[in-house]
Amino acid sequence: MLQPERLSFMLQYAFAYVKTETGLEKHVMRYPQIFATKAIEQKLNEGVRKGIIWHTQGSGKTALTYYNVKFLTHYFRERNIVPKFYFIVDRLDLLIQAGREFKSRGLIVHKINSRDEFVRDIKTTTALHNASGKPEITVVNIQKFKEDAEVVQRNDYQLNIQRVYFLDEVHRSYNPKGSFLANLNESDTKAIKIGLTGTPLLGTDYNSKALFGDYIHKYYYNASIADGYTLRLIREEIETSYHLKLKQALEEIDILQGQADRKLVYAHPKFVEPLLDYIVNDFQKGRTVMNDNTIGGMVICDSSEQAEKLKEIFDEKYAVPQMPELAMAAEPELTYHIRQKETGKVQSAALILHDAGTKDDREILIEDFKAGKIDLLFVYNMLLTGFDAPRLKKLYVTRVIRAHNLLQALTRVNRTYKNFKYGYVVDFADIQREFDQTNRDYFRELQGELGSEMQHYSKLFKPKDEIDQDIRQIKDTLFHYNTTNAEVFSQQISQINDKKIMLELTKALNTARDLYNLIRLWGHYDMLEKLDFRKITILAREANNRLALINTKEALERNVDTTNLLNVALEDVIFAFTKVKEEEMIIADQLKSTLQKTREMLGGNFDQHDPVFISLREELERLFRKKNLSEVSREDMEANIRELEKIYDKARELERKNQLLKAKYDNDAKYARLHKRLMEKDPLTDSESKLFEALQGLKKEIDDHILQNANILENESFVEKMILRLVINQLKNRFNLPLDAERSQAINHLIVKEYLNEYYGRVA
User: Fold this and answer.
1) Please, is 641 exposed, middle or buried when counting C-beta atoms within 10 Å of its C-beta (0-12, 13-18, 19+)?
2) Which domain holds residue 41?
């Protein structure tokens, strides 16, 4: 840190003065933010214009953007370039949150409120909107890039302006086949694009690296936990039991028809009430056990219907009416409510759904939860990503969440808070299998085992000949329809009632729309002449509407009201929820880091012929041969970590002893190794101190001879004779060690080999 260049960097860019509710705070860049900033600088110096910052949730990606506005402003000004900074989000609540974060750090925040405003902003060739000259950033929603490819075509590009896009949460809403991403790319083809994520997409169709470039810098969970920025997670497993077999009961009345019925069951009062009772009782116990009544909880519901029913029953059974503060003194009952709050009783909850209340209502509820005024949140899809509330320490998961979305959801409870060591996940949905798979996926990514880039991203980087073939197939499918007049086309498809025909038609039109965006995204502009893509977009809309109408008609014809039948099926079913076990959720990087440090400890050993070293290396190899470390379950990972830790501890102890012995011989590894060989199996003497004295004298004699003539080592036969004579004189004649001719030759061979290896730079 005290290197002049690094210290200068920190003094210039590493401090932020943040306005908070309690006053002004001085923040300093965390080391991952420093290294990420330096990595961005290196990539820019290499001519790389896009890439991903993979930093775990809670590591301060918005703050990283702020620091880079400062740093990159200076970086480009040195090159006579004026930067314009954009922070791109995909949700309105994140836009508001980001704007608030930047303002609190002193940035001027320019918000884009309409698509036309964004077009004007992109065309503007000046960098700043404010008159003060203070650094600023434009915060914009990705949806403002919708259906406009002409932004830059009409823009007079200025060579002294450099646009820098920071794209928040690049694991979401950046479909390579969609128009948003293509328009973002075309808004300024020379813009620098820096993606920010804690959970990059690892699939083939939607892969973050394929869209936004290689990782610029990585900072994963295990390092964040070790640094104290985030917490470990504890999973509490729950078993749902009921007196009657629900599946059998449903099958008997022939209503088990899939998702719709499952949703009804899990939102039914017979199921929801005991579920709520368990959650409330568990949460209250948690406050008691943790000795903290300020913590909050969140319930990720199976459906919006279940969330609504949970809130409804909560209000009936547990909610305490909120009364004005002025009435407290006059109302003795209020004193009871205050005591109830102090004892950790749950008495308030909020429902956060996209269609429950207004946006302003939801904002107030969210802020009240963060402030500790609300105990529980009932959610479905909202607040699973980007929601930062340090007091949230218990997460109740009632449905399986997939892949990167699962990690996003779980890390809502990993923020540091007071003296907490863990965030708690109460698992009603058996998420373990999905968590294991997600763990394995990210572990493989961390190991860099993606293989051939083109192989993995072939579906994105579709070659021109395949695009040409797709266009030909689309033309064949549309041949019988009027594709030049949308009104006539609409009349033609209105006569289609066959769902199969309509599916084929909509598939062709939707594929054409996707191809349009891919052609623009990868710059194959000459192919835009082969099909009227703008007209195709209108036709696709008409076709999708017709298909939706056919689906609706089909649903109405087949619709059976199963609600009453469901009530009959559930009449005698009594649900109960019981806790099964508690375990720490392993984060895959822990295995990787343990493996790495074990390898490094063994690899750094200067005596790799030591029997103990050989045994440890073979133990490590057996562990690798036993199974593919990147394909194991959480239980296997935990077992592997324990085995690796044992190997590491033994290797570290061996290294400690090696270094002590090496220090005895003035840090000469040759004689430390020789000392060990002469004490193994049939030792030359029982006294290590006597052997040390003898070898120390021998070392002085040999080194003196070599110092007088450094080239002596080039004559191997002469060296062997000289050292043999010194071995006999020092070890046998002077120290009376039991040497015969055979043993003298063996020791001589060891010493000569050590000196020659050192001279020629060979590994011992």
Assistant:
1) middle
2) 4-227
